[in-house]
Each structure stands twice: as C-alpha cells, then as structure tokens.
Amino acid sequence: MDLSSLDQSYTLSQTQLDFYRKNAFIKIKEVLSPEIVTHFNSIISAKVKEQNTQTSPLEDRDTYGKAFLQIFNLWTLDDNIKALVCCKRLAQLAADLMEVEGVRMYHDQALFKEGGGGITPWHADQYYWPLSSDKVITVWIPLQAVPSEMGPLEFAAGSQNILTGRDLSISDESEIQIDEKLKVSDCPKISEPFDIGEVSFHSGWIFHRAGPNTTTRTRKVMTSIYMDNNMLLKKPENDGQINDWKTWCPGVAIDSVIDSHLNPVLFKY
C-alpha cells in the first residue's frame, strides 16, 4: 500500500479557513484516498476487536455505552495506525485550521458505533481536557462512507461561544440541556453524510452529537486529537480532567507545556 500521500500537504482555500474560524468545524472531502481508508479500516478494526473489553449486550448498557465502543491511543500499540493518526497531512491541516505554528498529539480514539447503537448526546469535548486554551482540534476519520442512517456527526455551527452546557459530561442530561439551549440560539444544526475519504475537524468547545446507527453494520471511525505545540496543562476542574492529566499527559506539571512522551510534535512550520 502506497501511503506517501499521508505526508503530502493539503492546501485549504481561504473560504475553508474562514468557514472554520466562524463555525469551529469543517468537513473536507478527498483528504484520504478510498484505498487508504479501506487499508486502515482492516487494520483498525482488527486492533479494536483485540482491545475491546465490552461484553454487555447493547440493551443492558447506559446511554454512553450504547453510543459507541471506545478504544484509546491505538497509535502507541500499532505502528501502522500511528502512520495514519500521526501523519503530516492531518497534522498540517490541524495547524492551519487552528492558525498555530505546530501541533502535538493529545490522544487518539477509535469510536465504533455498532449496528443498532444509540445516539451520542450533545456535548463539548473540552469538558474532559485540562488544556489552557481552545487551540485543540479533533479529526473524525470515517473508515467507510457514513450515510445518515449510520449516525454521522452533527454540529451546532458557531456554538463554541456558548457557555451553557460546558460543565456537562456526555449523558442524557447533556442531550436535553444543550438541545434546549440550542433551540434559542442562532447556531444551525448541520448533519450530513460523509463520503469515503472525507473527514471533519472540530474544535474542543463546539457542541456536537451523532444520531443512532439504525443499520446492521458498525459505523467505524478513527479520531485523533491535536493541540497547539505550546499548549499548557491547566489545573483540572473535574474528575475527567484529572484522569486525562494522568493518562495522556503523564508527569507534566500544571502551567507547563504538555511535552510528555505521549505528546510528540507531529508538525511544525
């Protein structure tokens, strides 16, 4: 498999950069070739199957458990997966969208929404992150095309400035409270299918969710979270942030640059 395109730059238009600056998310087509997506679908699916510890049937799980199978930091377990989530193409796109000189790895995660899986409630990722600024971004990489019935990401465009709901973890409560707030905001909800090779990027504070997977097939997605290479660790404000500090930023002191062995610089101008 020729993976050389993963190290090739991808030039964004000014229109795309402006769209992200305003809305805090963007979908970008043809970032990856169909052949590369299929290649990594096989590799990542095998690793998720190997690492998965979820044995309860869907109907016995809570809302979070029904949303997806979640496996973290696969880049540390498989050099093939590392070639995707740490590649220069995705890291450069992250740097350009965030308007920073370089990016580090925060962590990756596979998110596999099983056939019949439930919604992913409204939430903002940065609730969980002990990071000192909003210069952090997630790339969402579907490992197949994602039609509407499989539960693609839905974004509340421009909601990164809404403060209500930032103190809520992913839950039934976050789905209800954030949805109520969005009903009286001017942030349009955008949910569209993903073509194969299309990816999205979204910032830490934008509200997003996903619908249920009403098919019998698993919606397979790989994600990687990139942060400004100068990101500082802030004092954690909740249990999730304490866990992330210990797990993804081991040994880093509060108010110091997050430069542990798990946070390599992936791209720098």
UniProtKB/TrEMBL annotation:
It comes from the Bacteria. One of its GO terms (molecular function) is dioxygenase activity. The keyword Oxidoreductase applies. Pfam families: PhyH. Keywords: Dioxygenase, Oxidoreductase. InterPro entries: Phytyl_CoA_dOase-like. This is Phytanoyl-CoA dioxygenase family protein.
